[in-house]
Specification:
Elements: E1 2-4, E2 10-12, H1 20-35, E3 40-44, H2 49-54, E4 59-63, H3 66-79, E5 83-85, H4 90-93, E6 103-104, H5 112-121, E7 130-134, E8 140-141, E9 151-152, H6 157-165, H7 169-182, E10 187-190, H8 194-205, E11 216-217, E12 228-231, E13 242-245, E14 260-263, H9 270-281, E15 291-294, E16 297-300
Parallel strand pairs: 2-6, 3-7, 4-5, 10-12, 10-13, 11-12, 13-14
Antiparallel strand pairs: 1-2, 4-7, 8-9, 15-16
C-alpha cells in the first residue's frame, strides 16, 4: 500500500509492524505547523533494533543539530537518563528510498533504528533543531536505576525537564524581550552564528501559546521598523536602546549607543560569558548585575 502523510509526502508500507512512525511523522508535521517550535525532541519506543545496539543501558539519540545533541547528552548525564548519539546521514537516508513513493516505512535488515530516525527526519522543517530518542530499551527494567525501581522507568522525562530548565539563551530572551517592548522600547539581539539567530527568532515568534514577540532577522528592507532585530553585529539598525548579546561574547557597543546591555547565555556559552563578566565587573561607570534563571523565576546572584 501507499499512503499519504499529513505533510503530503507518500509512504510505501512494506512492513505493517512499523506503524508507530506513521503516526509520529504526522505528529511532527502538526506541531511544526501549529506551534512553530524553536526545538523539537520526540521520544518513542520505536525499534527493537536499538536494543540490539545499546541493550537496556542507553537510549539512542538521533539529531540533526550538534548543539541540541550536546544539550541532551549533558541533561542525560545530570539526571541518569543516559543517551548515546547514533549516526545519521545520506548513506542511511537512501536506504528508505522507494521506487513508487517518496519513501518506504522501513529500510533493509540492518540499521533499523537509524533508518527509522531517517524516516522521521524527512518530516522536520529545514533549519529546525530536532532530536529523536529511541527509548525502546530503557522504558522498562528488571533492576533499580537512579530514580526508579523495577518496572516502568519514566525514562527521558527528567532529561527533558532538565533541558527545559537549563536551555540556551533563546529560552531566556522571551521574557526579557517582552519587558523591553512593554516599556515601548526596541531591542537589538546579537548572535554570531546564523543558526543561533534563527533559533532565537523562532523562539520569540512562539513565545507563548496565545502570544508572540514580533521580530526580524537583519538584512531586509524592514530592519528599521523591527521592534526586535536579530543581527550578527551591534549596529542598531532599528534604533534600539537595549542590546542583548545572546552568545556570551562581548562586543563593544560604542559610547552611549545603548541604555542597557544584557549578556544572555546558556550552559554552552558559560565560558565565554565568564570572561566577559570578569572584563566588565571592574569597568568604571558600569553597574553590573548577575541574574540566574531558576525554573521560571529570576534571582539576583551577584
Amino acid at each position: 500500500d501507499v499512503v499519504t502523510s499529513m505533510s503530503g509526502q507518500t509512504i510505501e508500507v512494506i512492513n505493517t509492524d512499523a506503524e508507530g512512525r506513521l503516526v509520529l511523522c504526522d505528529a511532527l508535521t502538526f506541531v511544526q505547523r501549529e506551534y512553530k517550535p524553536a526545538r523539537i525532541v520526540d521520544l518513542a519506543t520505536l525499534t527493537g533494533a536499538i536494543i540490539m545496539s545499546l541493550a537496556h543501558e542507553y537510549a539512542g539519540l538521533f539529531s540533526n543539530d550538534d548543539t541540541l545533541s550536546a544539550d541532551l547528552t549533558r541533561a542525560g548525564e545530570a539526571t541518569g537518563d543516559k543517551l548515546w548519539r547514533m549516526p545519521m546521514g545520506a548513506v542511511y537516508d537512501k536506504m528508505i528510498d522507494s521506487p513508487i513513493a517518496d519513501m518506504k516505512n522501513v529500510g533493509g535488515r540492518f540499521g533499523g533504528s537509524i533508518t527509522a530516525a531517517q524516516f522521521l527526519a524527512r518530516y522536520i522543517d529545514k533549519g529546525t533543531p530536532w532530536a529523536h530518542l529511541d527509548i525502546a530499551g530503557t522504558v522498562w527494567t528488571d533492576k533499580p536505576g537512579t530514580t526508579w525501581d523495577k518496572g516502568a522507568t519514566g525514562f527521558g522525562m527528567q532529561a527533558d525537564f532538565y533541558l527545559l530548565e537549563s536551555g540556551g539563551p533563546e529560552l531566556a530572551l522571551a521574557p526579557l524581550a517582552g519587558k523591553v517592548l512593554e516599556t515601548g522600547g526596541r531591542l537589538l539581539v546579537v548572535a554570531g552564528e546564523e543558526g543561533a539567530r534563527e533559533r532565537i527568532s523562532q523562539a520569540l515568534w512562539s513565545a507563548g501559546p496565545e502570544s508572540f514577540l514580533a521580530n526580524g532577522l537583519a538584512g531586509s528592507d524592514h530592519d528599521a521598523r523591527q521592534p526586535i532585530l536579530i543581527a550578527p553585529d551591534v549596529t542598531p539598525a532599528n534604533g534600539a536602546r537595549f542590546l542583548a548579546l545572546a552568545d556570551g561574547i562581548w562586543r563593544e557597543p560604542g559610547e552611549g549607543a545603548f541604555d542597557r546591555v544584557l549578556l544572555v547565555f546558556g550552559e554552552a556559552e558559560r565560558m565565554a560569558a565568564c570572561e566577559t563578566w570578569r572584563l566588565l565587573k571592574g569597568r568604571e561607570g558600569w553597574a553590573c548585575r548577575f541574574f540566574r534563571r531558576e525554573g521560571r523565576k529570576w534571582t539576583q546572584a551577584g
